[in-house]
Amino acid sequence: MLFAIHALDRASALPTRLANYDAHKAFLSDTSRFGVKIVMSGPLVSDDGASMIGSLFLIEAPGRAEVEAFNRADPFAAAGIWEKVTITGFLRRQG
């Protein structure tokens, strides 16, 4: 099953985001211990097209519990960067 993780940063989180970026990238390089696969991911940006304001993931996983565990373990979550995280099931129709 596919799941979308939509995570919005807290105000003024950019310095913390940048300080934890390498740990976040390393974490994303191997998701096998959570039983999930990243289909695609990247930062959400403001209307200027450059300022990072959150994260978006499309995850393939057996169920919601695995996605929640994966998300909780992300260094960005541990650093308190995200103010709001929404995890939603997703049905692919195109692409």
UniProtKB/TrEMBL annotation:
<dbReference type="InterPro" id="IPR051807">
    <property type="entry name" value="Sec-metab_biosynth-assoc"/>
</dbReference>
<dbReference type="Pfam" id="PF03795">
    <property type="entry name" value="YCII"/>
</dbReference>
<feature type="domain" description="YCII-related">
    <location>
        <begin position="1"/>
        <end position="90"/>
    </location>
</feature>
<comment type="similarity">
    <text>Belongs to the YciI family.</text>
</comment>
<dbReference type="InterPro" id="IPR011008">
    <property type="entry name" value="Dimeric_a/b-barrel"/>
</dbReference>
<dbReference type="InterPro" id="IPR005545">
    <property type="entry name" value="YCII"/>
</dbReference>
<protein>
    <submittedName>
        <fullName>YciI family protein</fullName>
    </submittedName>
</protein>
